[in-house]
Design brief:
It is a single chain. The chain is built from 25 helices and two strands. The chain is mostly helical. Strand 1 (437-442) and strand 2 (447-452) form a beta hairpin.
Length: 454
């Protein structure tokens, strides 16, 4: 397969030959080259324009190619100028529905509702309207903020002439205009719904803060057998993350269950939701269910399940999944995976095993893994291993305040006040400052704020 750049270069050479030999008189050859240029982005649009100017016998297709290119790549005003030029200068050329649809997209992009109205009038005078063109007119009016005219076009289409696109355009128009009830009403009246219809109404309910309605709609969508697309999955993920952050894991799980077709990202996000809230057993059960359904875990899924094992003290399960990741799933371990494993061993009191794990895996120069071990030692009061981790940490990153503060706290908690003071003095001497963290508490009356150190 040839590289796109080589195709464009050969196209440039062909265009040079066409212009040099005067072959631009053959409109079919020239149109083919215009398509080649306009498919390869705005960088080649100027070349397309030069070739367009050389074509001696332009036809409707020639203009449609260029107007469509400007609708897609910009600037839209140039596309509208080409339409005017076609109508005024090229006597006898009539735009077809594809030309007009492209021009209407230019109107929408440039917010030119008046020109959209003129194109609409031309369509009515010349009797070239159909449902596709009607949808384009409606969409252009809606995007220009001319909602009244958009509604009139919608109403003018006979019931059986409206397709899913017609209903979707008006639903989006209502949502953009702040008419949530109108959007919902259109959705419920619509006799034809595709994935875009569901996405439009679900995203609108989420945007207006009606997450419960959005969840119910996701369930209904799954029940109809409508396949999820990338945007639907992103909305489901947003709901899962939002519910998880609020601690509402039951609602997060309802979203997950409602998505009859689940991709690996949705699996990973739901597993992570349980992991974050210390419900490791449920996270592991969900991970096992994913494996049974032959969904191949990605890096994020393994981070989530290893974190769940770490927070729930599931050492053997953590070992098993780390081995599965590297040997069967062939996922390369990242720093996050290593940190999860060190944290897993550290929390379980297996600090020697954590140290061996760091050394055996060639990550002794990665400061964050020593920090994970140091924090685990602080939690367990293991002074000697904490000292080792602290020394490795400051060797790698002498400016990390967490190393000094954590080790100082370990010493203080074991009554080694002088040594703790020495660590703090060393920290000050190296110009390392303790970073402060902020917490917010909101109530109906006021917002409260406090800060604290490590």
């Amino acid at each position: 397969m040839r590289h796109p750049k080589s195709i464009v270069l050969s196209g440039a050479l062909s265009a040079l030959i066409v212009m040099t030999l005067g072959l631009a008189r053959d409109v079919r050859v020239a149109n083919g080259l215009l398509i080649l240029y306009t498919k390869h982005g705005e960088d080649h649009l100027s070349l397309a324009q030069k070739l367009f100017d050389e074509i001696s016998d332009r036809d409707t297709f020639t203009y449609t190619i260029m107007i469509t290119a400007h609708a897609r790549l910009g600037p839209p005003a140039l596309g509208l100028r080409l339409l005017s030029r076609m109508l005024l200068e090229e006597g006898g050329l009539r735009p077809n529905r594809f030309t007009l649809s492209a021009a209407l997209k230019c109107c929408a992009a440039s917010q030119d509702g008046e020109l959209a109205r003129q194109i609409h009038a031309w369509v009515l005078r010349n009797g070239v309207s159909d449902v596709v063109l009607g949808n384009s007119i409606m969409d252009s009016y809606a995007k220009c903020g001319w909602f009244g005219r958009a509604w009139r076009v919608f109403d003018s289409l006979a019931g059986d002439a409206r397709d899913a696109v017609s209903w979707n355009i008006m639903m989006r128009a209502c949502a953009r205009g702040g008419d949530a009830a109108g959007a919902v009403g259109l959705f419920e009246r619509s006799p034809v719904r595709d994935v875009a219809s569901w996405n439009t109404i679900i995203s609108g309910r989420m945007r207006d803060g009606f997450d419960g309605d959005a969840l119910g709609l996701l369930r209904r969508m799954a029940e109809t057998g409508t396949g999820f697309n990338g945007f639907t999955f992103s909305m489901a993920l947003t709901l899962v993350d939002a519910y998880a952050k609020c601690g509402s894991l039951e609602d997060a799980h309802k979203v997950f269950v409602g998505a009859s077709k689940r991709n690996v990202v949705l699996w990973g996000s739901t597993i992570n939701a349980y992991a974050l809230h210390g419900r490791g057993g449920e996270a592991v059960r969900l991970f096992e269910e994913m494996l049974r359904e032959n969904v191949r875990p990605n890096e994020a899924c393994f981070v989530a399940v290893l974190s769940a094992c770490s927070h729930s003290g599931m050492v053997e399960e953590g070992r098993k999944y780390f081995k599965l990741m590297r040997e069967e799933c062939e996922v390369c371990a990242s720093v996050e995976h290593y940190v999860c494993m060190v944290d897993l061993f550290g929390r379980a009191g297996l600090v020697e095993e954590a140290k061996e794990f760091i050394c055996e895996n060639g990550i002794a120069e990665v400061g964050v893994v020593w920090k994970a071990l140091l924090f685990a030692c602080q939690a367990r009061g293991d002074r000697e291993m904490a000292r080792w981790a602290y020394e490795q940490m400051v060797r790698i990153r002498a400016d990390d305040d967490g190393a000094y503060v954590s080790f100082s706290n370990v010493l203080s908690s074991s009554g080694r006040w002088e040594e703790a003071a020495e660590v703090r003095a060393l920290m000050r001497g190296r110009g390392v400052r303790k970073r402060w963290s902020w917490s917010w508490l909101e109530s109906k009356e006021e917002e409260m704020r406090e800060f604290s150190g490590r």
